[in-house]
Amino acid sequence: MTDRTDVDSPGGIDYIAVQESERFQTLKRMQRSFVFPLAAFFLIWYFVYVLLAAFATDFMSQRVWGDITVGLLFGLGQFLTTFVITMAYVSFANRRLDPRATEIREELEKAQAEA
């Protein structure tokens, strides 16, 4: 393990130490704990849709109303899911991630200005 105080960085800021700090690691954990489960959910949902379209054609071609089929509703559900996940992430980032990231950034900017 190296001593981070000996590292020469622009402006005197040791960005590696910042990246390894508990606050930054917590921020990364928070982001990953939100993103990975949603990404896994969406991929599973997508592959279920593809597999149903490929192997359950009778089910997917059932008419629900007029020319609207189960497959069409599932396909539209893919778009809807994408928008819902995006909105959920933006809301989460605005409430939980951005304030912490702003604190870290402001501290770095202050240290840069003082250097």
Describe the structure.
With 115 residues, this protein is mostly helical. The protein has one domain (21-114). It has helices at residues 15-20, 22-55, 57-60, 70-114, and strands at residues 63-65, 68-69. It has a two-stranded antiparallel sheet with strand order 1-2. Strand 1 and strand 2 form a beta hairpin. Helix 2 packs antiparallel against helix 4 (70-114). The longest helix has 45 residues, at 70-114. It is elongated, with a radius of gyration of 23 Å. It starts with 14 loop residues before the first helix and ends with a helix. Residues 1-7 have low confidence and may be disordered.
Give helix and strand order, one letter per element, not per position.
Answer: HHHEEH
Distance between the termini: 26 Å
**Assembly category:** single chain
Helix/strand-derived category reads mainly alpha
Shape: elongated
Biggest sheet, spatial arrangement of strands: 1-2
Mean pLDDT: 90
Largest sheet: 2 strands, antiparallel
Query: Which percent range describes the beta-strand content?
Result: under 5%
What is Rg? 23 Å
Unreliable runs: 1-7
Number of domains: 1
Helix content, binned percent: over 70%
How many helices in DSSP terms?
A: 4
**Strand tally, please?**
2
